[in-house]
Write a structure and sequence with these properties.
This protein is α+β, with helices and mostly antiparallel strands and about 200 residues long. About 25% of the residues lie in helices and about 25% in strands. Helix 3 packs across helix 4 (about 45-55). The longest helix is centred in the first third of the chain and has 11 residues, at about 20-30.
Length: about 200
């Protein structure tokens, strides 16, 4: 029985110059091994390797899945120029969000490889959660004193102090001063941004 092809299948069957190179570059930029990326995409490492060398052409569903994993768009994978993003984020552009007493102000643009937040932490509202996940985090204390637990070590940070660490190190953040603390927080996104911001403590 002959299978009918759809227009999407026809497009996916066409040679896609440069896609193999971009797939390889994006995976490496995200710090993912061939095995890890293939597992997330539901492909075998051998199949992903063939896509990255151009021996196989990806289907549209594969492109969608890989774009989601690499935090990009199918348009970028195909080499199309992304639309220019507004580089300036004005104060008050978005309403602050609250979770467990913490207040989050978005200070970065959507769809980027990093998420930036200004975070207000009241004293004594921290849930005792330890986070471990891929990526890097950076924070800078604006006001108050912040307690940062990294692995077995605990650090107290004053205004002007900052920390930059690997997110695979078990970490926990809380306010050490009774008046609470406020800090700037930036972390890398290894997958496409979630509509809900990643919170440093949840």
């Amino acid at each position: 029985m002959e299978c009918m092809s759809t227009p999407a299948d026809d497009v996916a069957a066409l040679p896609l110059p440069g896609v193999a190179t971009r797939l390889r570059e994006l995976r490496r930029r995200r710090g993912l091994t061939l095995e890890a990326a293939a597992q997330r995409a539901g492909l075998s490492p051998a199949h992903l390797s063939r896509l990255e060398t151009g021996a196989r052409q990806p289907s549209l569903p594969m492109l969608l899945g890989l774009a989601r994993i690499y935090g990009t768009t199918v348009s970028e994978l195909l080499g199309e120029m992304p639309p220019e993003r507004e580089p300036v984020i004005r104060a008050g552009r978005a309403a602050p969000r609250e979770a467990d007493g913490w207040t989050y102000h978005e200070t970065g643009g959507p769809g980027r490889a990093m998420q930036a937040l200004r975070v207000e932490v009241p004293y004594g509202t921290q849930r005792e959660l330890v986070r471990v996940h891929p990526g890097e985090e950076w924070l800078y204390v604006l006001t108050g004193r912040l307690r940062l637990s990294l692995g077995d070590a605990t650090h107290e940070l004053d205004p002007g102090d900052s920390a930059h660490f690997d997110s695979l190190t078990p970490h926990r953040i809380s306010a050490a001063s009774h008046g609470g603390a406020e800090f700037l927080f930036v972390h890398t996104l290894l997958q496409s941004p979630d509509p809900h911001p990643h919170h440093p403590h949840s």
